[in-house]
Amino acid sequence: MLLFIAAYNSTHEQYFEQLKQLLYHHAAKFSTTEQRDMYAYLINYGIRKINQANSKDSLNELLRFINTC
């Protein structure tokens, strides 16, 4: 449900932060395919954020997230 909310509220970063935390703490509860899809979604969000803002902070945040995957 949170993934759905995040997809339709791309300007509300809080949903993405919540999804990252939930996935980090509960990834084992999802199938490998579901995990891959959620991680890919979060990574794509990070890339969109970088492209929109051209922000070094966004890039660093994305790289930190990828390192935890």
Give a written overview of the molecule:
With 69 residues, the protein is mainly α. It has one domain (15-68). The chain has helices at 2-8, 13-26, 32-53, 56-68. Helix 1 runs antiparallel to helix 2 and helix 2 runs antiparallel to helix 3. The longest helix has 22 residues, at 32-53. It is elongated. 9% of the residues are buried.
| Fraction of residues in helix | over 70%
As a whole number of angstroms, the C-alpha radius of gyration is 12 Å
Tally of individual helices: 4
Number of strands: 0
Overall tally of structural domains: 1
N-C termini distance: 21 Å
Which characteristics define this entry?
mainly alpha, 4 helices, single chain, 69 residues
Brief overview:
By secondary structure, the chain is an all-alpha fold. The protein contains four helices and no strands.
Fold blueprint:
Layout: H1 2-8, H2 13-26, H3 32-53, H4 56-68
Helix pairs in contact: 1-2, 2-3, 3-4
